[in-house]
Amino acid sequence: MAAADNRLRTRRLAQNGLFTALLISLAGLLGYLALQTRVAWDISQGGRNSLSKASVEVLKKLDGPLRVTVYATAQDAQLGNVRKIIEEFLSRYQRAKPDFEVMFVDPSEQPKLAQEADVQANGEMIVEFKGRREHLRTFDEQALTNLLMRMARPGERRVMALAGHGERKLDGIANRDLGEFGKNLVTKGFKIGSLNLATAPGVPHDTSVLIISSPQADLTEGEMEKLLAYIARGGSLLWLVDQEPLHGLQPLAEKLDLTLTPGVVVDPQAQQLKAPITFALGASYGHHPVTQDFDYITVFPFARQLTFNENQEWRSVPLVETAQGGWVESGKLDTGIAFDEMYDVLGPVSIAVALSRTVQDREQRAAVIGSGYFLANSYLGYGKNLDFGINLVNWLAGDENLISIPPRVTPDSSLILSERSQIVITAGFLIILPLIFFASGCVIWWKRKSR
């Protein structure tokens, strides 16, 4: 009997020991997997705690390790634990790119390192990629992703704007100029400048994109020859055309086989958005890298119709079609706008076209937009004009893999109530609910007393 009890005890001890060993092994295995594998789910509304699609796409273009050195103290007078804030911000990028290395340096403990790195602010970051380095003094997704986009861009991309004839300036501050658009090009890694063909021997060979935007005076025959020579050798062109005269650029339109219909596009749908009827709304786009995944409204003030004449040399894709219920108004705008079937052209109307052809075994690209206003300082903020313009320049520069995808829109996190709603909620919580609780207590007290 005693021998049987001993065997039973021994068996139970062995089973308990095996169970304990298996439990410890399982816990150790789970701990190892937790260290080696990191899985996260973003359940916030709109996914605001994760990177936007645009940022993830840019990170995919960075082939190689990325290093970020953060110069931050443990505590900041305004932000508190600034290190923790930056660490959480950068962790989103690290989850998307495993070789994204982050290192922290305390400038108060190592002032010499901070001085050598030319650090000017607490929380400043230095981003390094393949020998290139840039400083970043703000930690928000748009700023860092723009910086990474500049680093992902192979080589230097120079955008030149034709000047000397009253054109819109890429660095101008007037309402009609393109200064804000030029600033955004710089943040994307482009170098911008102006080009006067009256004094320059020709368009420089390092020009990635030449912009012609609404000259107000005629180009000379010599300037036109230099411009056509640039087109002949395969240069990329962005031509913004208004309803004004071409001022000597008719040979360029003929070279591109374009017909520019006189008159202004009238779009009644614009009135539904409280915009002038002469603002053509872009909502229908052609199938092209510029418009891929682009499902946003664009606005083209005082646009004109473009018609491409099919030929064997150029390949064309209509980019934007507007005024499905509108027309091309050939009459004067100040004498009343009404459709005249004898003179006006019924919509829909094509106002932008992308052209390409093969020159010396490489693809030449050009884009013609029938509105110089849509990128002007006054109208750049309308719809997604800026994103569409950046996409155009990226494609023309041969960087369609960096075409900007508009960032994710985060839903509003604030609740705005009317005055009536505030009164109802206040009365409910401060008067009605306390009265209900008081009445319930009285009823309970009365029933207990009755018993």
What would your notes on this structure say?
- This protein folds into two domains: 106 residues, 3-Layer(aba) Sandwich (Glutaredoxin), CATH 3.40.30.10; 246 residues, Rossmann fold (3-Layer(aba) Sandwich), CATH 3.40.50.880.
- It has eleven helices and 19 strands.
- Helix 3 links the parallel strand 1 and strand 2.
- Helix 2 packs parallel to helix 5.
- It starts with a helix and ends with a helix.
- This is ABC-type uncharacterized transport system involved in gliding motility, auxiliary component.
- Keywords: Membrane, Transmembrane, Transmembrane helix.
Computed structural class: alpha/beta
Largest sheet: 8 strands, mixed
Kindly identify the CATH topology of the largest domain.
Answer: Rossmann fold
Low-confidence stretches: none
Q: Name the CATH superfamily assignment of the largest domain.
A: Class I glutamine amidotransferase (GATase) domain
Radius of gyration: 32 Å
**CATH architecture identity of the largest domain:** 3-Layer(aba) Sandwich
The termini sit apart by 65 Å
Pfam family, one: DUF7088
Protein name: ABC-type uncharacterized transport system involved in gliding motility, auxiliary component
Domain ABC-type uncharacterised transport system: 157-386
Domain DUF7088: 47-118
